[in-house]
């Protein structure tokens, strides 16, 4: 598993797609697919879109569920995950926004622990951090 993180509109998707330009890639936006992809490489981006549809009060279950599904997918293809950095010390005033930020933080920690490579993207430039 390869994870790429950066702020919104920081060039993450372009960076990953350029990295994989010579491969057949399936790109999914905002969810974790249930089925094995038709290609050898699966890129998943914007997991936070799916997270906002979940009960974020029980984030441990959400993190375990996502990791389990990703590990199953990884058995059948190369897996690239693109996530948006939502932290940076800013705590939202709205409860749901705080829950999303906290769940993303816990999910990202788990993803980074499992990932073979982690790259931070700033303005389209990648910096390998793992």
UniProtKB/TrEMBL annotation:
The keyword Kinase applies. It comes from Lysinibacillus xylanilyticus. Pfam families: CobU. InterPro entries: CobU/CobP (IPR003203), P-loop_NTPase (IPR027417). Keywords: Kinase, Nucleotidyltransferase, Transferase. It comes from the Bacteria. GO terms for molecular function: kinase activity; nucleotidyltransferase activity. This is Bifunctional adenosylcobinamide kinase/adenosylcobinamide-phosphate guanylyltransferase.
């Amino acid at each position: 598993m390869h994870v790429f993180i950066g702020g919104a509109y920081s060039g993450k998707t372009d960076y990953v797609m350029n990295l994989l330009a010579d491969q057949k890639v399936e790109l999914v936006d905002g969810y974790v697919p249930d089925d094995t992809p038709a290609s050898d490489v699966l890129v998943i981006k914007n997991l936070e879109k799916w997270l906002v549809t979940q009960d974020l009060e029980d984030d441990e279950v959400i993190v375990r569920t996502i990791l389990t599904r990703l590990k199953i997918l990884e058995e059948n293809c190369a897996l690239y995950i693109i996530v948006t950095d939502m932290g940076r010390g800013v705590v939202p005033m709205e409860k749901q926004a705080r829950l999303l930020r906290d769940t993303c933080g816990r999910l990202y920690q788990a993803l980074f622990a499992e990932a073979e490579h982690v790259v931070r993207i700033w303005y389209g430039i990648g910096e390998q951090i793992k």
